[in-house]
Amino acid sequence: FVAWWQPTEVFRLDEGMPGFEREALRLAPHLVERFQGGSPGVAIPGGYLFLVNETAAFEDEGEVTLSRFVRIDEGFQVTAISPQFFLFERGREQATGLARQANRLIAGFRVASAGAYLATIDLDEVLATLLDVNVQETKNG
Question: In the predicted model, what is the mean pLDDT of residues 65-87?
């Protein structure tokens, strides 16, 4: 469970445990400071993939929310981020979930004016959009 993105704080809950236990606390690129909510992670080779919301405020548009995919490695370090995207209404939808079925991703979205939608996306196509972040820069702040 990712509780926060900057720093990236991950908790574990195992069957029989009385509560959550911190699994990792990692520095991350400053870009992830605006990430919130989104999805549980799905396992991919070498780590996990998440679908997150990124919200920013603009004078002329007000608050705008876009989505991104985020890859973290098995040590829970943010390693890559997709460009921002939206499905129907720029800035007015939120990612709500992510699941994996073989080589397909199923992503949930809530669209302000149109309700809820599910989108299916090829996993390899999503992985091809990811831009590596400089892990060395991340570790040194």
Answer: 94
